[in-house]
Amino acid sequence: MNPKANSNPTAKESAGGSTVLAWLYVGVPLAWGVSQTFIKALALFK
Amino acid sequence: MPDFSAGLLDRSRTIAGPGYNRWLVPPAALAIHLAIGQAYAFSVFNKPLGSLISGDADHPAAGDWTLAQIGITFSIAIVLLGLSAALFGKWLERVGPRKAMLASALCFGGGFLIASLGVSLHNIWLVYFGYGFVGGIGLGIGYISPVSTLIKWFPDRKGVATGMAIMGFGGGAMIGSPLAVALMSHFKGSAPQGVAPTFIAMGLIYLLFMQFGVWTIRVPADDWKPAGYVPSEEHSALITTGNVSADNAIKTPQFWLLWVVLLCNVTAGIGVLETASPLIQETFSKAALGDKFVTPAAAAGFVGLLSLFNLLGRFFWSSASDKLGRKPTYLLYFGLGAVLYAIIPTLGHNLQLTLYVVVACLIISMYGGGFATAPAYLSDLFGKYQVGAIHGRLLTAWSTAAILGHLIVSTLSEHAKANGLTGAAAYQSVFYTMAGVLAVGFLADLAVTAVNEKYQEKGPVTIEAGGH
Question: How confident is the model at residue B211 (pLDDT cuts 50, 70, 90)?
Answer without folding.
Answer: very high
